[in-house]
Amino acid sequence: MSVSVGGVSVGRDSARPGPVRRTRREALRGVFGAALAVALVPVVAASRPTRSGEDPGDTAFDETYRGRRIRGVLRDGWQVTVDGRPLHLMRRADGTWLSMVDHYRSYPTALEATRAAVDELSPGRELREADGSMRQMHMGGDHGVHA
């Protein structure tokens, strides 16, 4: 309700000059809201899937690493070979990669997981040909435990 006094509107609807005063409750709401937002940022960021250092444009690699030819193509997951033999890679929930040769460690990119598998292969040893069973997709034998 406003009342006109001498041509000037006076009442609840008129703006008061000077600083706006807030109640303690309004100030606490503001502080609580800001604290809640700061606390939720890491939770929301962690829930988003990441590429873990992989460039979204990287869809293939082909190189010689420690004398072995490693190739990988991204087609509904990575299809990787070491010296022409398939190497099975798996994507972990956190976005990192592991191989069937070294499945105790994870790596930020498929290329790094492939290189680590080559590191685990001793000289002269090759990956076995896949015969349909997952056990045959890695080199087998005693290649060390990384627990």
Please provide a brief summary of the model.
The chain has 147 residues and is an alpha+beta fold. The chain has two helices and eight strands.
How would you describe the overall organization of this protein?
The protein contains two helices and eight strands, in the order ββαββββββα. It has a four-stranded antiparallel β-sheet with strand order 3-4-5-6, covered by helices on one side. The model is unreliable at 132-141 (pLDDT under 50). The chain is α+β, with helices and mostly antiparallel strands. It has helices spanning 24-47, 110-120, and strands spanning 2-5, 8-11, 60-65, 68-74, 78-82, 85-87, 89-91, 97-99. Strand 3 and strand 4 (68-74) form a beta hairpin.
Keywords:
147 residues, alpha+beta, four-stranded antiparallel beta sheet, two-stranded antiparallel ribbon, 2 helices, 24% helix, rod-shaped
Instruction: Give the number of DSSP strands.
Output: 8
Mean pLDDT value: 75
Helix content: 10-25%
| Overall geometric form | rod-shaped
Please mark out the parts with pLDDT under 50 across 5 or more consecutive residues, or reply none.
Answer: 132-141
Strand content: 15-25%
Number of helices: 2
Largest sheet: 4 strands, antiparallel
Give me the secondary-structure category.
Answer: alpha+beta
Helix and strand element order: EEHEEEEEEH
Topology:
Layout: E1 2-5, E2 8-11, H1 24-47, E3 60-65, E4 68-74, E5 78-82, E6 85-87, E7 89-91, E8 97-99, H2 110-120
Antiparallel strand pairs: 1-2, 3-4, 4-5, 5-6, 7-8
